[in-house]
Amino acid sequence: MSIPIPSNVTSGSIITSDINKRTLRQRIMDNRWIYVFMLPSLILTAMFTLYPIIASAYYSFFQWSGFTSAPYYIGIANYQEVIGDAQFWNAFKNSFVFMLTSVPIKLTLALIIAIVLNDRALRLAPIFRTMFFVPVVTTTAIVGIVMTFILSPFNGPINLALMDLGLVNRPIDFLGDPKVSLFAVVGVEIWKWLGNPMIYWLAALQTIPETLYEAAEVDGANWWRKFFFITLPLIRPFAVVILLITAVGTLNVFALVQTMTQGGPFFASEVMEVYIYRTAFGAANSMTLPRIGYASAAAVFFGLAVMVIAILQFVAARWANREKAGIAAAETTREDI
Amino acid sequence: MAALQSTAITPEEHTKRMALQAKRLREIVITLILTPIALIWIYPFLWMVSASFKTNNEIFRSGTSLIPDQFTFENFQRAWVEANISQYFLNTALIAIGSVMLVVMTTSMMGYALGRYSFPGKRIVIGIFIATVFLPKGYTIIPIFELISNLELDGSLLGVILAQSGGANVIFILLFMGYFSQLPKELEEAAIVDGAGFLRVFFQIMLPLSKPIIATVVIMQFIASWNDFLLPLVLTLARPELRTLSVGMYAFRGEYFTDWSGMAAAATIAIIPVILLFLVMQRYFIEGIAGAVKS
User: Fold this and answer.
1) Residue A30 domain-assigned (yes or no)
2) Most buried residue, A170, A210, B143, B274, by CB count within 10 Å?
C-alpha cells in the first residue's frame, strides 16, 4: 500500500545530499502539500496586509473622494499638500511626543514592577501580576469612554480625590485643556498597557539563572551591584525587542485618543492615526468630503517614517548584540590563552 | 550531647534563620506597599461596575465611593435594549469566534509548514511575515475599506472577520513554528508506516499535540478581536446594525452623553466577559505573550 506523500515528510532533517541532486522543479513538486498548507495564510496576508501597502501608495497619487467621483490622477500633489499642512505636522509631532513620553515611563515602571514581582519571597506575586495585567485585556475603546468619566472635571473620581488630598484647588479639565489633553491620554495609555512590558520583562528575568545571584551574594554583592552587573547585562538582548515592540505599538494608538478626546481640543491631542481617519472617513459626520487620496498620502508618509525608525532600531540592536558577542568571543579567547 | 544539640543553635543555623526572617520581613513590607498600588490600579474597573448600579444622580453625589446607596439594575436593562448592546454583543461574539477559528486554522498550517519542513522559498515567506510586523494599521485601513466594499462584503460581518484575520499574525505563526519544530520526527514516521498521508499526519497527530499553542492563540486572538476598534469602526460606518461593542459604545456616548450610568452599565456588560475569560485562561495568555518575546 503506497501513499503519495512527499519524500521528505519525515524530516526537519532531510538528507542533504539527496536534496542537492534534485532539481528545483522536483523539490517544489515534492513539497506541493506544504505550499497548499501555506496558501490560506498567504492569501489572507496578501489581501489585507500586502495589497493595502501597494494600494495606499497608488491611491496617494489621486484626488478621490472615495464614494462618488472617479479618481483623478494628480501626481505628487497630495504629498506636496501633506508636507505643507500644519495639521499634518501637528499630528505627526503628537504621535512622536506620545511615543517619546509614554514608552520610557511604561518600560521603566514595568521593569520595576517586574523585578519586585520576580522576588521568590513574594507569595502573592501571581495575584499582583494579574491585577497589573487586567487593563491590558480590556477593550481599549470602552476603557477610553470610561476614562472620560473618571477624568471628568464634573465630579469625576480623580479630580475629587486630588481635591480631597488638597493637591489642587480647582478640578483639572484633563481632556478639555489643550495643554493637558495629550498627556492625559498618555497617562491612560501607560495605565492600560503597562502589563504587556511587565510580562515581557518577567519572561526576560526568568531566563537569568538563580545561581548567578547566589554566587554574587557569596562574594558580598549588594542589591545594586547585582542589578547592574547581572540583571541589566543579561536582559539587554530582550530589552531591544521589548523597546521595539512597545514603541511601534504606541505609534499605532487610535482607540484611546479617538474615544477620549477625538484629537481635541483644537487638535491638541490629534495623533497620526486619528488624522488619517478624520481625513479619510471622518467626513461621515461632517459636511466636508472624504479625501481618500490625500489621507493615503499622509498614511504612506507616516508609515514610511515608522518603518525607517523600526529599521534603524533593528540595525542598532544587531550592532549592539554583535558588539556583545564580540566581547564574549574576546573573553573566551583570553581564557583559552 | 543529644540534649545539647536540640537547645543550642550552631552559627550556620543561626545565619539561616536570620536569612529566613529577613525574607519574611521583606515579603510583608513589599505586600504592604503593593496592595494599595494594585487596588488603585484596578480602581477604574471597580468604579465602572459600581457606577453601573447607581442612578445618574448618585454618580454625581457619591464622589469616589464605590458602594451604591441602593442597587438598581435598570441601567443594564436600558443599555441592553435601548442602546442596542444586545445586538452589538452578538456581533462582537460572532466576529471574535469567526476570526479565532480562521486564525487558528491558517496560522497552525503555516507554522507547521515553516517549522517542520525546509523547501524552496521558505526564507522569502518568513521575510514577508517579519516585514509586516512594523506596519502601522493606519497605513492599511483605507485600501481594506475599499477592498471590502468591492468584494461586497460590507453588508455582513464576514468582511470584519476576514480583515481581522488577515493581519499576518506573525506571533502566532512563530509560536506554532517553534512548537512543531521541537516535536520528535518518530511521530510522523510511525504514522506514515501505518499508512497516514500528509493531511492525516497534520490533523490527527500534529494538531492535537499542539493544544497548548492552540489555547494561547485562541485566547490572544479572541481578546484582540474583542478589543479591535479601527477596523469595525470603519467597516460599519454606514451599517449601524453591524456595529461591535466598541463601536456601539462610541456611538452611544455621542447620542446620550449625559447618561453616565447607562454607559457604565454598557461598559460593564462589554468588559466583564473578557476579563472573566482572561482570569480563567490567564496561564495560556501570559505564557503566550512571554513566549513571543523569548522567540
Assistant:
1) no
2) B143
